[in-house]
Specification:
401 residues, alpha/beta, Rossmann fold, globular
């Protein structure tokens, strides 16, 4: 029986939990012993319900991240901000991961967005496989995240990366292991990496010879049935967080005049009633909606650019308008809006949302591109998600040794 440890250290949400759940289930079915060390035990308890899975709390930073670099201009800046900039803190995290790994005694570790766990595995000589999106498994050398035209700034970014590398190598020396030649080597020590995405949706661009395995989705039947408001014209589904710019986004959606459902978790019931009662063609939902029903009935989706929702809509051939709120979303939205056949209209100013919606609805190019994406990947036998990872683990002696 193979003993497999699955780790999840950074990030949040179903985008990490669903593939972990699928992987754990597949491994159990192949008679593996599975332990999952996860960032959020409460959330994962809704996904990893099989009592055969041993659940452990993953070591991770609890205190607020110190944004030494704000905004981070490179992936190295981001790693520095999430804990790699503190020698003592990083040492404690690596030590905690080492003890956890020694407790579990796995034959193999599967890391989902777990850079500190990767360091610990390397220091112990444990075999590792990585799974993640293009963002959580970056290319090497580590990418610069924003447009930089000033060479002096670029040199400064590389100097910052070198200082972070020196911290990492000091930790390596404490555990008696060889240091890294570059910070990006953190992601190169694993046996294999599986990218849970598609080449068009890789945040950093298509990578030659990458193992793209597609996206795992939550059960499509979860949620309530959408009830579309009265009105004629294309139906618009908007998934928006009630944060900065929400009121303006709401006003823009109302002005479009199409039957629109806005799913906005976190909005108060009173605010939802005010928005939903302002115009008959707009309805607000505070409850999750059945995505399978949304897919079957809507013509356009407005969202912040989360990788999972973007993937699911494009696989259904539905075009998008995106309003990114954070860096990872911005990278993906820029990627899909600037490709040769744009898959979405990306909005950086919420005041332009209505115009972007009209552009996508009136210009058939976006829908044609989404349909082409759907036809390319729907039912593809090559993109088997976590099934491919499970099969690799089971046959790893033949595949990766």
């Amino acid at each position: 029986m193979d003993r497999v440890l699955i780790t999840w250290e950074l990030g949040g949400g179903l985008g990490h939990l669903v593939p972990i759940g699928s992987l754990a289930k597949g491994l159990l079915e192949r008679d593996c012993e599975v332990t999952a060390a996860v960032r959020d035990l409460v959330s994962v308890g809704t996904i990893l319900t099989d009592p055969q899975i041993r659940l452990l709390q993953a070591p991770h930073r609890i205190e607020p991240f110190r944004r030494t670099f704000d905004p981070p201009l490179s992936y190295a800046h981001m790693l520095h901000n999430v804990g790699f900039g503190s020698a003592d803190g990083l040492c404690a995290l690596v030590s905690a991961w080492r003890h956890l790994i020694e407790l579990v005694k796995p034959d193999l570790v599967v890391c989902e967005h777990s850079p500190t766990a990767l360091l610990a595995c390397d220091s112990l000589g444990i075999d590792v496989i990585q799974v993640g999106t293009g963002f959580t498994i970056p290319p090497t050398p580590l990418p610069i995240l924003r447009s930089i035209e000033n060479r002096k700034v670029e040199r400064s970014i590389r100097e910052d990366e070198q200082r972070t590398l020196e911290i990492v190598n000091r930790i390596a020396s404490r555990f008696g292991v060889v240091g890294l030649e570059s910070l990006g080597q953190i992601y190169l020590r694993s046996k294999l990496s599986f990218l849970r995405t598609y080449s068009e949706l890789d945040h950093f661009g298509e990578r030659p010879n990458a193992n793209y395995v597609g996206v795992e989705f939550a059960e499509a039947s979860i949620g309530v049935e959408p009830v579309w408001p009265a009105g004629s014209g294309p139906r618009v589904f908007a998934y928006l967080k009630p944060l900065a710019g929400f009121r303006e986004a709401e006003r823009q959606l109302m002005n479009v005049g199409s039957p629109t459902i806005i799913y906005t978790p976190g909005l108060s019931s009173q605010e939802a009633a005010e928005v939903g009662g302002a115009i008959p063609s707009v309805r607000v939902s505070l409850l999750p909606l059945k995505i399978e029903s949304i897919v079957e009935s809507c013509d356009l989706v407005v969202c912040h650019g989360g990788h999972g929702l973007v993937s699911q809509m494009l696989l259904a051939g539905i075009p998008l308008v995106t309003i990114p709120m954070q860096l990872e979303q911005s990278l993906l939205c820029r990627r899909i809006s600037q490709c040769a056949q744009p898959l979405a209209a990306n909005v950086t100013d919420v005041a332009q949302l209505g115009e972007a919606i009209q552009q996508v609805l009136l210009n058939n190019t976006y829908r044609a591109s989404a349909k082409q994406f759907s036809q390319k990947y729907s039912g593809s036998s090559k993109l088997r998600g976590m099934t491919a990872v499970v099969e690799t683990i089971i046959s790893r002696n033949a595949v990766i040794d």
